[in-house]
User: Fold this.
Amino acid sequence: MTTIQKFEDVLSVETEELVTLNAAENVIVMVDEAHRTQYGLLAAKMRKALPNAAFIGFTGTPIDKVFRSTVRQFGGLIDSYTIPESVADKSTVPILYEARLPELSILGPNTLDKLFDKMFAHEPEHIKQRIKRRYATKEMLAEAESRIEMIADDISDHFNRYVKPNGYKAQVVAPSRRTALKYAQYVNDFGISAYPIITTSNEDGPEFNVAKALNERGFEVTLDILGEHVDSRQEAGEVTAAYVDLYRRIAACGARANISLKPTHLGLDLGRELCLENLLQVVSAGRESGNFLRIDMEDSAITDDTLALYSDCREFYDRVGPVLQAYLHRSSDDLALILSTRLNVRLCKGIYRERPEIAHQRPSAINDNFMALARQALEGGAYVALATHDRPLIARLEQLIRDLRLPPERFEFQVLYGVPMGGKLQELQSRGFKVRIYVPFGEAWYDYSKRRLKENPDIAGYVLSNLFKKE
Ligand SMILES: Cc1cc2nc3c(=O)[nH]c(=O)nc-3n(C[C@H](O)[C@H](O)[C@H](O)COP(=O)(O)OP(=O)(O)OC[C@H]3O[C@@H](n4cnc5c(N)ncnc54)[C@H](O)[C@@H]3O)c2cc1C
Assistant:
């Protein structure tokens, strides 16, 4: 079993020519959903990789257009089984929908609160508050363990009394794979045979294809959902849920990736308390999977808040790290305050336009401060992520690493996905150094690029043209 996307890279490394993977004549390829993806480059590559295989298509919706015809592509119909036939055979049966509202369903903010009170009545107030923070979204609460058990009990009872005696079967639809498995388990415990049928729609997402491909080339990855400065609590909550989910998806697909996020994306403009609440939810999801969280540094108006948020999160979980910007005069003092052997800090030049009173403007001054901060952090025992594409600066950093005789476990290099580095990254890897690639993704990327353009027109060219290009 495979997917057509896996044939994307069937090129010889040396000649860049398409490679034959298996020329045997007794290979049979059964193509599911054969009306899709069978007419383009990927299909051509697959057929070239398996030149003598027999391709048999299966589809519920054959298409017949000028350039795309399922029948033409696969060489005629072998057999068909139509919906009217399956209805006549009773393989297809009607689904009867029954509106039923167990007391535990979630309708809106009020019922959400009532639900909490009902489910967690026995817990002391401070525990209730903690649970509330953790399950602050509908989806999370929908997946809470005891709620699933209660609903499964209710479903089993209803099924045994009203559905089964009439000779019917039943289906339960769940919001995620994990929840579906839980429902099946509990309903079974209540004496009903249930089988989970899991259907997912590309749950990994394209960002994971990029992350996994980079992992395969030996790179570590940081994922970032593009966006910043949300306008409402609701939006901040949605972004928070997306980050929580991202940790789960990283763990589920096994990519070597951590997360980086911007405080204003989690609602810092709407208040530090709100942002901290959201941030702690993301941090606890990171803690659950033992993963790391980087808190990006934004403009100087929120440097204090961002460092305070970082400290609050660190009390809760060790594997959280801040970013310091070399263009800011204050960064050395900030570093001194947080420096310890348990610090994991990213150093970068800084991307916002800042006033000369608070920030170096000359590139050479910024680079010198970058070097001074790197030395200060490394000598102080911190783990340091050196985020820059500036090759002369990278050469200076390599010299510093040699001078301090640092082992590769003490630092890593970081670059943005898509910025051409002319073989430098492979060179760093060949020295045994860790290289991490920062991959921003998500629908907000266009807004993000536009905002960057307004903030600092000098970098617009990079961001717009290179953010999503491959190296
Ligand atoms: C992993 C990572 C995380 C970052 N996190 C933050 C953060 O939290 N806060 C913050 O303020 N800034 C952050 N930055 C941005 C950083 O501060 C710089 O503004 C940015 O990296 C450009 O500076 P440079 O060090 O690459 O050097 P530059 O001297 O600006 O660039 C060196 C060369 O790299 C190329 N280059 C640089 N950036 C790009 C690009 N985007 N596209 C194409 N080519 C490029 C150019 O050819 C340029 O000549 C981050 C950068 C990276 C790589």
